[in-house]
Write a structure and sequence with these properties.
heterodimer, A: alpha+beta, four-stranded mixed β-sheet, four-stranded antiparallel β-sheet, 45% helix, 13% strand, B: alpha+beta, 12 helices
Chain lengths: 394, 377
């Protein structure tokens, strides 16, 4: 057993770290230090910088323009990006539909879509959830009806993150109402400029315009935009779930948030003439969350070592999401508590919060989503109960 | 990065698991609750013959050339069936002192017979007033004319009731020292008692006990201070390793119970409330296991700060996540879980002892927070 990264990996880490600092434009650097929320144009600006470096799609194979990173290098890369607080890359094209097109797409589809995903020229969003199909995704009802060369799509998708900025949406649609509900679903790629497609943004709890409702009214989608077999979309959706899961552990983002909490504790008064950082009860509470994060980090590293050894991690990786997201939320809670009354201002309207800290309240509100999205933590528990512990179905 | 045990370690783990299952199933530890010693010399001798008592020591000392991690792997397997032999106090604690700081003649006299399983040892660290601090003592040793005199009260000496030799930690004007004392020696009173988990330990009263210079381990002062700090971490990491064995069995027993127990005409494991509880137990067990792995490896890290961080992280998880698993294991067993007849309670009690020995969760969280640069100013 050996818990250290190899010398080569450490050298790679240094290379990534110093490149990030030299490549970030000043405005982005400032926001990154503050842990601010990036606007879509900033995300795409950063995407293009990465593209020019050849690092936009760390998990793509070289034949499609990926940098040829090893599993460990990919992990280090994402860790350093998170620690530096760089704009988070939109995952829908690069991490989701891109790999699916590579695996299930026709040559024409690969040629049409992959280069523009890589360059950032086309932005994607995801159309999975519907008002009545959340955790029970397979009961989705948005329909795609055969009409010769086209499908006619009708229905509503929801939580379509940043659909208002997207050029394309990948959707799970119902193409067959008979038999098992999982077996009548297809995977369709839809141009957002198609007549009858409309994205309506709504504000999140953190007051960011991240969510949309996306409506389809008799939208005509060419059949060449069907990805994978007709009625075989559920297999594609599942293939995506088995994708690299170590990032869902959110270890580096949590360390970044923890460092911010410590910075706040170091200057925040405790009311009796000292700082929180000098108050034993506060130190212990921060220590406890850091120690839990360290234990969690070891679980993530174990999964990473599995991947690096070429084994596909099993359903037990659900625990990475379960633990990682609750740690994130606990750090948010503790940070708000450390800020005391200052945590109650809204985007620093009272001018009493240091500029570096003004996004914390919004982040605290929005991060309630972490235990809900990508399969709620209750769904993760269902998976673990059945697949790992072998408990009987109800 | 590599989380796999090497072939020798895998074989060692398997051999110990087989031995524990055959020679010392849980019924044995249940039976030995009524025994005055609480463990048996015949099994100890067998462990010596199998080479397990020599595992972490250098070959020139008669050891097998392993490290702390190899002892920890043994301890984890012993935890699975609650094997009561004094592996941690004798091998991990006293053995380490003698191997690292003992003279050749001390090693010949005290260490080698223990490696063979002919004797067992103990280290007296705790006192009424030192809580879990392994380097703070009121028991004092003074020197005069080349020999030492010890007075004070040591408490909670693991295997103190049965050890052939006891290594006593005491304060000297130059810093802490380690002194070998015999149970039958003038001025030594051994007071055995029964612990909550059905095992035995002893308080030891020292009243002007004479110790000759050749029974001092190492040199009192800085070196012994460092050795005692290491001992505290070895003890804590070993408690976690044993705790991993204990907690894993509690989880497995509970999941098995959920799959077989029927109420309302169905297996109770089909109820989502209980499934989610079981998953949370699984999650805490995985965190404990990973933290324990890190502690086993970092226990021998040359940087004491890294060592403390890893060990305290694991010990905290034993006291928090481990306690969650242990409490919920009883809860999900229902009424039968609260009977002495069912084994789950034996594991519950052992976990509790392990979570307290060598520092409880509060102690370790505070220690972690007190490391330099915890919060950069």
């Amino acid at each position: 057993m050996d818990l250290s990264f190899s010398e080569q990996d450490e050298a790679f880490r240094e290379e990534v770290k110093s490149w990030i600092q030299s490549a970030m434009p000043p405005e982005i650097k400032e926001k990154a230090a503050a842990g601010g929320n990036f606007a879509m144009e900033e995300v795409m600006q950063w995407h293009k910088i990465l593209y020019e470096k050849g690092w936009a799609a760390p998990n793509w194979p070289e034949e499609h323009g990926g940098p040829g990173f090893s599993a460990t290098e990919r992990f280090i890369f994402s860790e350093e990006m998170a620690l530096a607080g760089t704009p988070p890359m939109s995952p829908f094209g690069l991490a989701m539909v891109g790999p699916l097109i590579q695996r299930f797409g026709t040559d024409e589809q690969k040629e049409r879509f992959l280069p523009k995903i890589l360059s950032g020229e086309e932005v994607w969003c995801q159309g999975y959830s519907e008002p009545n199909a959340g955790s029970d995704l397979a009961s989705l009802r948005t329909s795609a009806v055969d009409d010769g060369d086209h499908f006619i799509v009708n229905g509503q998708k929801t939580w379509t993150t940043y659909a208002q900025y997207a050029d394309w949406i990948f959707c799970l649609v119902r193409t067959n109402g008979d038999g098992k509900k999982q077996e009548g679903i297809s995977f369709l790629l839809i141009d957002m400029t198609t007549d009858g497609v409309e994205a309506v943004p709504m504000l999140t709890l953190g007051h960011t315009p991240a969510f949309c409702d996306t409506y389809f009214e008799n939208a005509r989608v060419p059949k060449e935009n069907l990805l994978g077999p007709l009625d075989g979309g559920w297999t594609l959706a599942k293939a995506l779930l088995g994708h690299e899961r170590t990032a869902v552990g959110a270890v580096a983002p949590s360390y970044a948030a923890l460092n911010k909490l410590k910075r706040i504790a170091a200057y925040t008064a405790n009311g009796t003439g000292a700082t929180l950082a000098e108050t034993p009860s506060w130190k212990q509470r921060i220590a406890r969350i850091e120690m839990r994060l360290r234990a969690h980090q070891m679980v993530v590293y174990k999964a990473l070592a599995e991947q690096a050894a070429g084994r596909i991690p099993g359903p037990e990786t659900s625990i990475l999401k379960l633990v990682g997201t609750t740690i994130q939320q606990e750090i948010d809670e503790l940070t708000m508590e450390a800020m005391g009354l200052n945590s109650l201002t809204w985007f620093n309207d009272g001018k009493d919060v240091p500029p570096l800290e003004e996004w914390i309240g919004s982040r605290f509100c929005y991060n309630r989503a972490t235990t809900i999205y990508a399969g709620s933590n209750e769904i993760q528990r269902n998976i673990l109960a059945k697949m790992v512990l072998g408990l009987p179905s109800s | 990065m590599d989380f796999e045990l090497n072939e020798i370690q895998q074989m060692l783990s398997r051999t110990v698991a087989d031995f524990a299952g055959k020679e010392s199933p849980v019924e044995r530890s249940r039976r030995l609750r009524d025994d005055e010693t609480g463990w048996e010399t015949a099994i100890w001798k067998q462990m010596g013959e199998l080479g397990w008592l020599a595992v972490p020591f250098a070959e020139e000392l008669g050891g097998m050339g392993g490290g702390f991690i190899d002892s920890a792997l043994i301890v984890e397997q012993l935890g699975r069936t609650l094997v009561p032999e004094p592996y941690v106090p004798s091998v991990v604690l006293a053995g380490t002192c003698l191997a690292q700081a003992g003279t050749e003649s001390q090693q010949a006299e005290f260490l080698q017979p223990m490696l063979a399983g002919d004797t067992s040892l103990a280290v007296a660290l705790s006192e009424p007033a030192n809580r879990y601090n392994p380097t703070w003592f009121e028991t004092a040793a003074s020197e005069s004319g080349g020999s030492w005199t010890l007075s004070g009260r040591k408490t909670w000496v693991l295997n103190g009731h049965a050890a052939n030799h006891i290594l006593v930690a005491a304060a000297t004007p130059g810093g802490p020292g380690l002194f070998v004392v015999q149970p039958g020696q003038d001025g030594v009173t051994v007071d055995p008692f029964k612990t909550i988990d059905g095992r035995r330990a002893a308080h030891i009263e020292l009243n002007n006990v004479a110790v000759s210079a050749d029974h001092v381990i190492g040199t009192p002062g800085e070196d012994t201070q460092g050795l005692l700090e290491l001992l505290g971490d070895y003890g804590a990491a070993a408690a976690v390793a044993e705790g991993v064995g204990v907690i894993q069995v509690m989880l497995d027993m509970t999941v098995e119970y959920l799959k077989t127990r029927e109420q309302f005409g169905v297996k109770i494991g089909s109820f989502q409330a209980l499934q989610h509880r079981a998953v949370d137990m699984f999650v805490e067990t995985q965190l404990l296991r990973s933290a324990s792995t890190a502690a086993m490896i970092k226990a021998d890290d040359p940087d004491p700060v890294e060592r403390r961080r890893a060990v305290s992280t694991a010990k905290l998880q034993l006291g928090t996540g481990g306690a969650f698993v242990s409490r919920q294991a009883i809860q999900l067993h229902g009424g039968i879980g609260v009977t002495d007849e069912h084994d789950i309670g034996l594991f519950f009690k052992r976990h509790h002892v392990l979570s307290v020995l060598f520092g409880d969760q509060e102690w370790h969280a505070a220690r972690f927070a007190d490391q330099p640069e915890f919060i950069p100013s």
